[in-house]
Amino acid sequence: MAEEAAAETSRAAVSPETVGKAVNALLKWKDEQSSQSQKAQLLEKDELFNLIVTLKKIPENPRVNPHKVPLPHPLLSEPAAAEVCLIIDDRPKSGLTKDTASKKIKSENIPISKRIIPLLPRLLGKPFFKKKKIPVAVDLKHRNWKEQIEKGCGSALLFLSSGTCSVVKVGKLWMGKEQIVENVIAAINGIVDIVGSNIRSFHLKLLDSLAIPVYQAVPDLRRFKIAPETDQLSSKEEEEVVEEEDASSHQKKKKKTKLTVH
């Protein structure tokens, strides 16, 4: 019950107004940077809004496969005309050459059959996992391939591995402000459903901007212990020190006393 209450608190603490102010600040900063720069950047409108998720503790059950967080507005510029590359198990005479596969795999929209997910580390190699270029798993045992692929392409990916920080792509510059805000709110709600009360903070940023906080959890003071000051001793410790001093001075007096025999 306590974890559910904490999760609801973090969900309710992030309002659309707060997210809207953060988005406005980032858009204003980007406009200033663009006006100061003399060179127009290539694919500037494709720059991403990143939601930085910071956890209180490292996940107990880290996983390589990302969690899918549905977004109301996909990050594809033209979802209806977007091309995807679906990876399935090997078929004889597929006609797919190595060059064709390498060109298609450069796309970020790569759904993959759920049954071959365990083979990815060996087949794709470490660079794909370092750059978070992991295909989205779809269950091809069911007939609704179209719905599953659309859901995968319209979802943000949350990686929960061996750290306390994760970055989730929630928007692009070409999108409208309202769309970005709705995506951020949906992403936060989806992440809270997955992580629960383990959320420490949410920050929103562009590639080179500062991270703007949109939520910060209140520290749990019960987890911290205040150490006593070194110059203040308890009464029991003071009594022990006095007794030790008295005993040592008494022994010194005994050593100084000498008996004279006539």
Automatic annotation (TrEMBL):
Residues 237-246 have a biased composition (Acidic residues). The keyword Ribonucleoprotein applies. It comes from the Eukaryota. Residues 230-262 are annotated as: Disordered. GO terms for cellular component: ribosome. Pfam families: Ribosomal_L1. GO terms for molecular function: RNA binding. Keywords: Ribonucleoprotein, Ribosomal protein. PANTHER family: RIBOSOMAL PROTEIN L7AE FAMILY MEMBER. This is Ribosomal protein L1. It comes from Corchorus capsularis.
